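Example record for the data management plan.
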Amino acid sequence: MSSFSEDDIRRAAEVREWLVKEVTNKKEELDKLRNTLLIIDSLLKKTSFISALNLESPGSNLNNKSTQQYQPLQEEEEEDTIQQKPKINSVIKSPSDEYRKDDIQDVEIRALKRAKDNLLISNAEYTPTYVRITLVDDINLNINTPPFKTFFLNRILDGMKMKDREKVQKGELIESEIIDYKVDSEENGKINSVMISNYGERERLNEIFNTATWVFTRMLEKGN
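Corresponding structural encoding:
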């Protein structure tokens, strides 16, 4: 004979019904939390970035400060030292002459400096559509000094262009969105500036600045 009274059984049934409801509610709540987590993870993957090159310049890392479509870079910004846009005299590549120059956009400045002594190499300016790396007057670098052509142009920038062309073939980009660049240099080979359009992703902007700083630092060492 059962040792439980009818009241005990009734209470147990009520508790069981309550527990079933709690389990169901918790399951629904857990599903909502998981869905919210997936949404946040997806958002973070789209907005976060990782430097593509692990170069030696410690000042070339980026912070996470948001600015419209992309985030500004770390290090001191010299907002009062925006250099004039250089006149392109000679070109060592033959990219399209059609650059999207939207002067009404806010121009950001990125100071590229040699790591060991903070020697200023360039006050590079950039917008969401282009990057212009103009060497300061005291920096005299030749286009034929390695690794400018072999690494910066041929491997990094041409490599980005090749990936863009592959995306065009897949229908992920159109021709006018392919990354392009020009080098402004004098007759003696002295580099004045490098103009890069359609850099696209934030990760690429990061990689361009990291690579340029490293390459120009190596060129300065070879010059010395």
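Summary line stored alongside the record: Residues 52-223 form one domain.
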